[in-house]
């Protein structure tokens, strides 16, 4: 098992092989793919939260978030695809409930774009024997959500559900009830997910 990080010294998981990887740097991605050519399950879980406002934030902030959350998984998946095809592997892309709910500015847009890419990759890779699973989840009790006071999922439980989904060949894993409720709401009028719009009519 490999654990990738921009600084491999930060990898402390017992038994994991540290792997230097900056998902925004094509050379770093290529080097990681060359070093870990025996990978059979690729987990795209790198993420950055800027949450830029579309009207007031610098456009560069939006671009920076897309570099990590969308182009990063794209570069990594393309680099590792040959190994995954050779070994009949699997891709797990970590999305968010915000793939379907625009509550965090540009972050939501990056996750929505990743969701769309995951669906396209699933279609492209299925004939090559590679499965693709999208993991959707709300707040998880990690450093990224340390300041969040809302209920958070246990990371170990999210991992268990994700790996069960990969083993079962699931197209999507919805890891908590908030995510399941939002997914159901996609078939309703837009105001079902954005009640402030109904109040404005």
UniProtKB/TrEMBL annotation:
**Keyword line:** Oxidoreductase
Classify the source by domain of life: Bacteria
Listed GO MF terms:
oxidoreductase activity
An example GO CC term for this entry is: cytosol
InterPro entries tied to this protein:
NAD(P)-bd_dom_sf, Sc_DH/Rdtase_CS, SDR_fam
Q: Which Pfam families match?
A: adh_short
What family does the database annotate? Belongs to the short-chain dehydrogenases/reductases (SDR) family.
Q: Which PANTHER family match?
A: OS04G0390700 PROTEIN, RETINOL DEHYDROGENASE-RELATED
Protein name stated in the entry: Short-chain dehydrogenase
Taxon lineage: Bacteria, Bacillati, Actinomycetota, Actinomycetes, Micromonosporales
